[in-house]
Amino acid sequence: MPALAALVAVTAVWGLTFVQVKDAVAVYPVLPFLALRFAIASLALAPGARRLARLGRAGAGAAALAGGLLAAGYVLQTLGLERTSVSSAGFVTGTSVVLTPLLARACFRLDVGAGAWAGAALALAGLALLAGVHRGQWGGDLLVLAAAAVYALQIVLMERYAPRYDPVGFTLAEMAAACGGLAVAAVPTAAVPRGATVWAALLVTGLLASALAFLVQTWAQRRTSATRTALVFTLEPVWAALFGVTLAGDRLGALGWVGCAVILAGIVLAEPAAGAALGRLAVGGRTLLPAGRGRPRPPAPPPSDLL
Asked: Is residue 97 part of a domain?
């Protein structure tokens, strides 16, 4: 499916940016970095500003909520990335696929099977193993876990929002809302970005990992469910680990890789289609998910239930 293939490309970009962001925030404050990232994303989408009028009040409110979730998630993830390895952060972020159906139940009273609960328990066990890799890493992994929960909520809500609103207008409003909130928070530590490392990370994350990636997500979730989106996003930690080892020199050791494997096992147990998706990709299969697999999409609640 084109929508799922596009989401796979997005996960590769996000996996690469774990390395770039970690290097950038080592020399530049986190909040100004994120504010500039979403400012660049907003400017990139600005040519579509005329489409904001199609959102209406409800759409603007939905986009503001989605943007606020993104801002909160990226603050938590980037602060965690300062305190943990690229590979660990990638695998912990992958727990969003476990959290997505649980949050869907909490928000929209959807049924969640025993596999999802068992998968969540396995993912937490994997986090505990990862925490033992480097001294002081536990706090960073917890921050990234909180970010994963925020991202999972954003995926759940986007299943409701994406089919209702113009994707360009919605994504622009979402990026602008994230930028506005982060800009206010960044004032105390504001500084002029300097150096190729910071600017390269800003441009790649702003243009590709934010403007293009979330536009693709909005477009794709008009065509596929939150569960399938979360399943494809399980590839993000795989990309992050690959780039972490090859570009950032990560050395997790046996305990760390066991923790990563346990997290992936939890993801597959929670959503068996994830294993099929990864397997098909590994053998070069043409389809990303088996036809007819995944949870059925529940009916969208009225707008008053979403805001």
From this structure: yes
Compute the average pLDDT of residues 60-86. 90
Nearest-angstrom CA–CA distance, 231 and 244: 21
Domain count of the fold of the chain? 1
Residue 138: give the domain boundaries: 2-286
pLDDT of 225 strictly over 60: yes
pLDDT at 130 over 80: no
**Axis-axis angle for helices 30-45, 167-186 (nearest 10):** 150
For tokens 């996000």, name the residue: 14
305 within domain boundaries: no
Surface-to-core class of residue 57, CB atoms within 10 Å of its CB (0-12 exposed, 13-18 middle, 19+ buried): exposed
Cα atoms in the Cβ-side hemisphere of radius 13 Å centred on 236: 30
Q: Which amino acid is at 158?
A: M
Residue labelled with tokens 């020199």 = 249
Give counts: helices (H), strands (E), the chain: 14, 0
Domain-embedded: residue 294: no
Residue 231 falls inside a structural domain = yes
